[in-house]
Amino acid sequence: MMIININNEWRIRTEPLNWIIEKRVWNKDKEKWGKWSAQAYPTSLASALYWLMDHQVKELPGEYGPEALKHLTDALAEIKDIISQVDDPATNPTTNQQKDL
To answer: Which residues touch 73 (CB under 8 Å, ≥6 apart)?
Structure first.
């Protein structure tokens, strides 16, 4: 089992046949973190990263003007380019090994 900690609240965990996105929830007293709760079961690491990116963007607080949209779309394009390399056999040799199984 592998665990990729994204931050204190989010992580990606693996099982032999699954990728699992988990969110840590607060205990009822809201004074400390509680257990991890499964939020999604993507089919690949790239899918998990896209899911997290999409979710994080949707959760941004506030109201933004048109100038912020340009910065956001530029940043998202860069992130998507990095994520696409996760599943690219030319840049990730482990992808070939996984597909050969």
So the answer is: none
**Residue 78: other Cβ atoms inside 10 A:** 10
Instruction: Using a cut of 0.90, tell me whether the model's pTM lies above it.
Output: no
Question: Per-residue pLDDT tens for 10-57?
Answer: 999 999 999 999 999 887 776 777 889 999 999 999 899 999 988 888
Read off the amino acid at residue 83: I
Q: Which residues make Cβ contacts (< 8 Å) with residue 39, sequence separation at least 6?
A: 21, 22, 23, 55
Provide the token pair at 3: 């665990």
Compute how many other C-beta atoms are within 10 angstroms of the C-beta atom of residue 44: 13
The one-letter amino acid code at 41 reads: Y
Q: What is the DSSP letter of 37?
A: E
